[in-house]
Amino acid sequence: MKKISLITVYNNASELTDMTESAKNQKNVDVEFISLDNTNGKFSCAAKALNYGAMQANGDVLVFLHQDIVFCSDYVLDYVYNFLSIHEECLCGAAGVENDFKNRRLTLSSMYQGDMENKYDTIDSPKNVFSLDECFMACKKSLFSKIKYDENLCDGWHLYGVDLCLQAKVKGIKSFVLPLDILHKSIGNVDDSFAVTLNKLAVKYRKNFSFICTTCSFIYTNPIKRALLNIIRKIKHG
Prior knowledge:
Elements: E1 2-10, H1 13-23, E2 29-37, H2 46-56, E3 61-65, E4 69-71, H3 76-86, E5 90-93, E6 95-98, E7 107-109, E8 112-113, E9 127-132, E10 136-140, H4 141-144, H5 160-170, E11 174-177, E12 182-184, H6 192-204, E13 211-213, E14 218-220, H7 223-237
């Protein structure tokens, strides 16, 4: 049987229940649930929690997902497992941002988000991307032994998935968005800590990339370009 571990940090038991109940209907896979209770602030950041969860996992495939994910098809995890059985050295997820950056940022996904009627229909087959959204990411356990979430840089609850993709990209490991029939109840949020972490990523990867692109934003890694961009954003958004 295809052993797959679902690793989730949660602070809302009801949301977690919705996710686990929908996951129990998944076909052709043996699902292990690693649910990390953070209602009392046990974990200071997502990276620390998910690294801890990965150490407990017994699955051949690790899926890191938000508590508010719901599976809309019974074969989502079977599809993910089969894809990673063929493409072992890669990351994959439900949403990401394209590699080809030409003064635009196109989110690639086929999942529902927020209202069930709000669906991204930008892919119908696996697509190589620059980075993935962390709401749903997966990889082989053997790959996660080579890279892990950066607990020092991503010391909050944003962009830890982007950093993992960039770690992989530096090593020549690709990231793919898959056409997955799931719902992400949240529409995401961007706050001051998001901007702080994004700037830290720009410093970390300055020698590797000229820019960093995410599903929510982008930033130049060159310090002068980055400073000008940040000034423009402050003026625009007050």
